[in-house]
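QA checklist item 7 of 12: single-chain prediction sanity check.
[x] sequence parsed
[x] length recorded as 203
[x] structure emitted
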Amino acid sequence: MVADFVSAPGRVSPVDRAHQHLSDLTLGVVGVGHIGAEVCRRSRAFHMTVIGVDPVTRSVPDAVDEVWPTDRLPDLLAAADYVVIAAPHTPETERLFDRERLRQLRSTGVLINIGRGAIVDLHDLTEALAAGELRGAALDVCEQEPLPPDHLLWRMPNVLITPHVAAASPHVAERHLATLLENLRRFVQGEPLLTPVDKRKWY
């Protein structure tokens, strides 16, 4: 490719055509909780337009241009170049991204799942990618983990798969322990706990 560029500088290569300026793109984030908001903040650093959908239409002024209610998910999928799923697994989100939903994305869109594997119907995603209905996908979580070694997704050049390690870092265990100890202190003192879970909502 370098040789082609040097010998024919006036020609636009496939690599050139594949390049994208992030500042020209729109990121859609499904689930603007703690994780989703951090994804938004990092994307805004590259001057992307960032839109989220969330059951709680919260304001995150330093991270998101707009947060829409979940009934506007089709609008978000139609507007976004990249869609990041950062939502929890609940009865409402299970297989939320089936074939019908995937068809609401742009044919040039890329789906990224860092939330829960059960949110995306793996069979439907595989079929959509094989049919060219999506530009690509990046999956840190899958409906079935580990993904079988003979699964078609492994052989797709437009799919990136990582083994559920998006949150991994050398300091994760330390931070979890610090949160646990702080919550123990708060519990003893009768203070509100950090990161409470509402079992009725599943998160």
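[x] summary fact logged: The chain has a mean pLDDT of 91.
[ ] second reviewer sign-off
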